[in-house]
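Task 17 of the worksheet. Students: predict the tertiary structure of the chain below and write it out as structure tokens. Keep your answer in the requested format; marks are given for formatting as well as content.
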Amino acid sequence: MLARKKAQRRGGKWPLITAWLGLILLIVAGVMMAAAGPAYRAELIELGTSFTWLRQGAQLALGAAVLGLITVVFAGILRRWRPALVGALVSAAVVALVAMPMQMKQRAQSVPPIHDITTDMNNPPAFTLLAAAREEAPNAVEYPGAETARQQKAAYPELKSITLAMPMTRAMDAAKATVQARGWEIAGSTENTLEATATTRWFGFKDDVAIRMTETQSGVQVDMRSASRVGKSDLGTNAERIQAFLEDLAKQ
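Model answer:
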């Protein structure tokens, strides 16, 4: 019995200390990273500050992972299984915590640094009803031009307009229904155009959408534009939004 107690006391409090420090760092990192988006969305902090929280949270998380691994090795050698288990759980939680920021970083490196995407780069759908809102934002109202078009063609060559074999009124109704199903805020519409704003969940970034329909001999041609109000790169979000929307619209 005495030998067992001595075995449990091997290493003193150090396995417990490193385990608890790792757990505390993990909690602080998680709170910082989780709060970065909502705090910016609530206009409590600036965008730069929210990104700083993400970066610092990720750094703290890595520190927690190091402490977790140290605990696993140290406590394992001393046969202190409870601290070792805590260390292993902390290390595993860190992997899950930093997965999303790492994916965002990798994605930013794999897509061009553009934020205004359209199916018609020669004559992009215009923002009219949303012009005032975009003028107050950092990114321009007008389409950036040839360099953005060149980068878009290279990165998203499959992004093109679609043609719907239905009357204009039915095509517009289908577009409105698809926009509403996505929870976008409709700014307004005409007989052949529709403008709306999509808001991202975490940070609350606002991306504006313009849809233009043109009657042709084959049916109604649908062109679309999606542009972020903030940020140089959209991490491919606008291209994905257009592609997914047009695919769903075609199913109508």
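Marker's comment: Residues 2-110 form one domain. The beta strands are 116-118, 162-164, 185-189, 193-199, 206-216, 219-228.
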